[in-house]
Structures
1.
Amino acid sequence: MCSTKSQSFLNMTIPAIKGQIGNTVFYSANLTMGQIARLVARVNEELYTAKSIRDQLQRSLNDNYLKIKDYIVKHSDRFFNALVLAVYDGDPMWTEIRYELDNEQYSNVGILSFNGSEKVFPVDGQHRVEGIKAALKENPNLESEELCVMLIGHNDTPEGKEKSRRIFSTLNRYAKPVKLGDIIALDEDDVVAIATRHQLESNPLFMEDRVKATNSIAISVSDKRSFTSLIALYKCNLELFNCFYKQRNGVILKPGKLKDYLKNRPSEEIINGFNEYLTVFWTHFINVFPEISAYIADNRVNAAESYRSIENGGNILFRPVSLTPFVSSIATIALSNNIERLDEILGSYSRIERTVSASPWVRIIWDPIKHQMITRTGGLVKYMMISMYDSNLLKPKEKEKLIADFQSIFGVDYAEAEVRISNLKLV
């Protein structure tokens, strides 16, 4: 039995297309949101008899369905991929409609008929189903909108449950989240992604293949052309968006609120405003650091080679492991001091040591023995850069973390670590 009694399929007929993969027959059809809300119940005994596992499945229906509800209600260009629904009990009947086109016969189109005793539950799309139900409670006018569904048969037997569980787990196990690089390239709601793409088309530092478009943040030493990676640029711009939002609204978005904000396309005024904000920042960035201007002016295919050297690591600005915490430190300083003009902070960093293998970066982001970058030290690099600007901006826990990291990395005692950190200055 289903956990929630659903309206029956009584005398319901659905145009559908029949297909088969392996030994599984399925039917592709359209159902309205109203039909889905009334007919589809949550997974319960259909897959597992153990109450503990059923409870786990119900707990997995977390508040993500509310975010889907918001997406349905707020986006006029909403779209979903097909729901996979399992149908059992009753007596579904398939009636083929044969037709011929250009001497080719087609027999996989027809009508599914139900007698009203059938039950249905989602094998894939349980969050979407619950999101649809919640959306219709908020806006009943949406119930006539149609979604594509794939219907498969389910036998309420040990063998049938095993097969449905296998389909359920396979669909969920191999469903991969969209990678960040793909989101940046395609998302039309995320203002940071939108603005990042605009920079790729308009800013000389990022145009003409100067940004590596991959799903990795790192840049290989074999890449002699790119300034940075697409993901590194997005992460930098995300930090800058916090400053833009605070300047515009007077408050800082907490991480959870920021994540939700990026799921809804803002007004064109905000998009254009943030584009302009980024243009101003990256223009100052180009002007402050002579090597950036020189890189832009160099049209050779290996223009970045000397800035990402195998011998000395190159320049910290051309390394995502240091570029992203650098921009993050600037944003943090601006937010802490309520500084609106980021060019003032950027100007202070014109004196920073930028050779990866030189002090203070050796053994922090550069391994002098292996002659390679040290990753996963972004937090430490950020604290160091903030301390260089003004050590008083670090919180007590951040200072203690910085001292502990120096003790561990350089093998010194607490007092010596404090001295080394106090010597972090913008030369």
2.
Amino acid sequence: MLPTTKPNVRRIAPRLAGCILCFVILSGHTAAAETKSDSERLEKLERAVELLQKRNTELEQEVKSLKKEKPSASAPLAAEKRTHFVPDSKSSVVETTTEEKKPVYVVPGAAEYKLSLGGYLQANFEGGDVSAFEGRFGLTALKDRFRLRRARITLAGDYKEQFEFKVEGDFEQSDGLAAATRTGFSSTDIFINWHAIPEANFKVGQWKAPFGLENLTPDASIFTIERSLPTGAIVPERQLGVMLWGKPLTNIAPEQKDLVTYYAGVFNGSGRNFSVNDNNQFMYVGRLELLPFKGTLMGQDASLKIAGDYFFSRDAIGTGISPALNLRVGADGSLSSYTLTSPDERHAYSFDAWLKIGPFDLIAEYFHENVRPLGPTFNEFDPKGYYVQGSYFLIPKKLQAVVKWESLDPNQVANDNIHSITGGLNYYIHGDAIKVMANYVHTWSDFREANPQFGTDQFDEIILRLQVMF
């Protein structure tokens, strides 16, 4: 323990005594000077009094400053238990030692002025007709399971020269029908973005192609545990390429800078983690977002966001055109991934809207794609789908109820539509950083209903999720 600092009386007392002695000497000197007039003696006495008052004021200020000083805290000590083995003994001895803990810190490897390390974990329980809403029933059905849905690590940084970067990877397990094992680390987002000009950012690397609202909403922030089937079947997902994007009104009308945001990208079109292009053609993707309203409505913060997307691609044989989920219709009406058996040409567009009024959110999205073969192995088809989702906070910022209706028409055989309705609850323990989610999903197949020989056309699933971000 350090002694408590108190005003230094021993230091102040000699000063005060010196001042009094000075006063006495001056007074005595004034009395002894009989040759001087009374006015001179009075003048000197007044000067002595003024000097004493001034010094007294200085001493009072010094005392006050000393009282304000606090004792300095000693460095924190942490008790640490260490275990060591005693020679010729079968037991270990645990001793407690006191040792100062040194802080852990990260030093940027280059000239970054900002560097962050983070990630998140999503652990699921899935029971019932697992992933039936994705068309996985019958021949492609999955069993009840515990699932590590995502386990991501992210490293991001920023430079003074207005370059930013992100490197993210995932340890998630494959959902292949064979005996899937967690065999390696798969990259998700790896890119560099130059943001010196807000109206024209330039981005290069791998990330989600700018198509679809639900697709672009971060995995840790969507209101249902999984994205809709139309999103997974039609959206191009992550691609390798370059993109120009920005907010064109940032400097022209700063108060309206969020009114318009555009994205225009050129990609290989082969999907994520493919360093080669499937052919000499590229995928072209564009998105335009508008925020026509942001303010208050019925006394609540409110906003309306609308957007449209488009992509065009020519693909080679063997290219997977639904890398995220399923699109090919099987003999029993179930879905599986679609790999091209001949070159094709694809056009797709979508529209989405997001209305937010206080605790209420309403989101809707529509997708349409045309797949035209450039060979004789399959027929042209036009998959399309939509979803409508509403959510409301029953307890502000804590408990949220969600309902979603979705439908996909693969458009490959008669009555191949798949519909689902999802009801869920989200409990935000600490925002998105610690969140518990529960979904009940009811799915039905028009193909199974029209062809009862293949089995049931109604499916039910329960999904639970714990999410932790760090």
